[in-house]
Amino acid sequence: MSTRIRALIADDEPLARLWLRGLLQEHPDIDVIEEAGNGIAAIEHAGALSPDVLFLDVDMPELDGFGVVEALGDQRPHCIVFVTAHDRFALQAFEVHALDYLLKPFDAERLRKTLDRVRAQLATRTAAAVPEKLAAILEALHQPRKQDRIAVKDNGRVFFLRTEDIRWVEACGNYVKLYTAGGSHLLLQTMAGMEARLDTERFLRIHRSAIVNIDAIHSIEPLFHGDYEVRLKTGEALPLSRGYRDRLQALIERSS
Q1: β-strand partners of 157
Q2: For the residues of the chain, what is the DSSP string, one character each?
Q3: Cα torsion at 16, 21, 26, 29 (round to 10°)?
Q4: For 175-179, which contacts have Cβ atoms below 8 Å and span 24 or more sequence positions?
Q5: In angstroms, how far is CA 187 from the centroid of its own chain?
Q6: Distance of alpha carbon 129 from its chain centroid, rounded?
Q7: pLDDT at residue 119 above 50?
């Protein structure tokens, strides 16, 4: 019995999704489990359904394909196949380790070659699953997860923001807002996901809606009824939850 491959299609054009679904249905081992019409929906479906392969359009409203990959982080499907009418994104696609790049319009034979690569990639993953999981566990035990740079969008362009330049992070619904000396930037990410990406020796969550860079802290000020706030060097005041107070004080002492 062959292994079923679970596929997610993300494209803002309904006819493009219908056409790709039709081509995939010619392959009995491929199950199209869901479709997404924009980048936000693609993230939600990929996170909830964990597909094996994501067929991802580059140019979509709200969030483009590269923004989807960035937002998914460690939750990205094992196989990412970009599907687009533009060849100028090919280099960027492979920089984010896409498995393939389908240039519209493509035919059934070109898709068959892509699916052969998907099958081969997934077979390799299955064979290596146990040692990969063990290696991941050992790495998590011995090394804090952190990123030195984070990709953000600003007026249609994408650039890399150094995490050390972030003063603090604020929760904003399905997004987080990164505050720097140059301004603020919205990023599609949860606060928990943001915590996992930042250096735990430099950043600390001080409230359900705030993560702070301890280098940006000026003082911890007492308020009424035993409450405190964190005062930044820029004058901004952030709430400090009681449950985080001892952790913040210990981190400051270690860093001083």
Answers
A1: 154
A2: -PPPEEEEEE-S-HHHHHHHHHHHTTSTTEEEEEEESSHHHHHHHHHHH--SEEEEESS-SSS-HHHHHHHHGGGS-SEEEEEES-GGGHHHHHHTT-SEEEESS--HHHHHHHHHHHHHHHHHHHHTHHHHHHHHHHHHHHS----SEEEEEETTEEEEEEGGGEEEEEEETTEEEEEETTEEEEEE--HHHHHHHS-TTTEEEEETTEEEEGGGEEEEEE-GGG-EEEEETTS-EEEE-HHHHHHHHHHHHHH-
A3: 140
A4: 178/150, 178/152, 179/236
A5: 9
A6: 22
A7: yes
Q: What is the dihedral of CA 24, 28, 33, 38, to 10 degrees?
A: -10
Read off the pLDDT of each residue in 176-201 and give the average, rounded to a whole number.
Answer: 85
Provide the edge-to-edge strand list for the sheet that holds 210-213.
Answer: 183-188, 175-180, 166-172, 210-213, 203-207
Is the pLDDT score of 105 beyond 50?
Answer: yes
Q: What percent of the chain clears pLDDT 70, i.e. is strictly above it? A: 86
From CA 113, how far away is CA 9, in angstroms rounded?
18
Provide the whole-model pTM. 0.52
Query: How many Å apart are CA 155 and CA 67, to the nearest integer?
Result: 13
Tokens of 231: 């005062």
CA-CA distance, 53 to 119, in Å (whole number)? 10
* Domains delineated in the chain: 5-138 (3.40.50.2300), 149-255 (2.40.50.1020)
Q: What is the pLDDT of residues 48-90, one digit of tens each?
A: 888 999 999 988 877 888 888 888 887 888 899 998 887 777 7
Which residues have a Cβ under 8 Å from the Cβ of 179 and sit 6 or more positions away?
Answer: 166, 167, 168, 169, 170, 236
